[in-house]
Amino acid sequence: MRQFMKFVHTVSSAGIVGGLVAYALILLYAPQATPQDYADMRQTIVAVCQYMIMPALGISLVTGLLAMVVHRPFQELRWVWVKALLGIGMFEATLAIISAKAGDAARLSAQIATGQPLEKGLAATISSEWTTLFAILSISLANYVLGVWRPPLAMRWARDV
């Protein structure tokens, strides 16, 4: 059971990073010449968030927490708890920021494509998009590093005493 949890957790974690990279690549390289192209690009980002990032993030969080339950020694390791807290924070941030902003930007850009003057609202919605994307990608990669490196995270002075 432990190996299965680890496998599913690893695959879903790769899905998160892949989805975040896809998000960035779509932002960089998708056609944005016309308002309709931009609206289509935003719909693609929503699809990546909805069908790749959020499900993978949910699966990763659940399998990570279940791995702590089925493998009792994990409950006593600090790196596991740091990874769990980072995972929960990443889930909340992704749900609240990436997914919500992607949906808002798609809705506003679709309205702009129909001729409504909402450019200021769209600019406010996407103003910190790259910063947020890189922050969540950094947290995701930190979780990867913690899972592979598995540092003891013990205080040096506590070991010397």
Poorly predicted spans: none
Beta content: under 5%
Mean pLDDT: 86
What pattern of helices and strands is seen along the backbone? HHHHHH
Rough outline: elongated
Brief description of this entry?
This protein is an all-alpha fold and 161 residues long. Helices cover 83% and strands 0% of the residues. The protein is built from 6 helices and no strands.
Topology of helices and strands:
Elements lengths: L1 H28 L5 H36 L7 H36 L5 H8 L2 H21 L6 H5 L1
Overview of the molecule:
The protein is mostly helical. It has one domain (2-160). It contains 6 helices and no strands. The chain has helices at residues 2-29, 35-70, 78-113, 119-126, 129-149, 156-160. Helix 1 (2-29) packs antiparallel against helix 2 (35-70), helix 1 (2-29) runs antiparallel to helix 5 and helix 3 (78-113) packs antiparallel against helix 5. The longest helix is centred in the N-terminal third of the chain and has 36 residues, at 35-70. It is elongated, with a radius of gyration of 19 Å.
Short descriptors:
161 residues; 6 helices
